[in-house]
Amino acid sequence: SFESAEEEYQGQTKRKRIRRKKQKSSLQNSNNLHGEQTESGMQETLVQDNFQLQQIHSPKISKNRKRKMKKKRQKEKMRAAGLVTKTTGVDFTYQPDKNNREEAAGLKDIDEKADSILDFLQATQQIYFADNKSECMDSAVNSATAQELLQYLESRTISSSDVTLLHQLKSLVLLQDIERLKDALKQFQEQSMMPPDHTKIVTSLFHYWITDILPVKNRK
């Protein structure tokens, strides 16, 4: 009937209105909630900002900053006056490498010299002791001492300055320059850092070249 149809229509309309109200109120709630969240987020950000500002302006940091700024201003004034120039540091960058290369080359040179002296003295001491020249020499000059000296050379427990002096003596022997060899031997005795018995054996071996080997070579 018409009345029942009208009642049903009004009921539907009422339900729609309620639904709309509900949707509207939920939308408002969500907006309010979002607003609250945004507001709380903003408040949180503001709190963080305030905290950071407090940190920045805390007495300890601001004192540091003031000092740094003061230094910076002083540098700028001095630079403007031409009293300070910016350091480039280009030369310094390559200096360590250069030093390392020179040091490595120096060590290699000493190593090669020590090897050549070792071979030379080994051969000399064999001839020297076979020729019984040690009999009229000091008791410190014996084959055991000579072997000890050779071991020192082999293990490199000998100063680089002594290696240089020994290499100079060996070079003068090869040049057969007896006079200069005598002078170099005196220099070696004065400057050597070896133990006294090692210095004596070296002196004896090179003296043997001066007195017995080189004069014979020169006569030939």
UniProtKB/TrEMBL annotation:
Residues 13-24, 60-76 have a biased composition (Basic residues). InterPro entries: ERICH1 (IPR026719). It comes from Phaetusa simplex. This is ERIC1 protein. Residues 1-80 are annotated as: Disordered. Residues 25-57 have a biased composition (Polar residues).
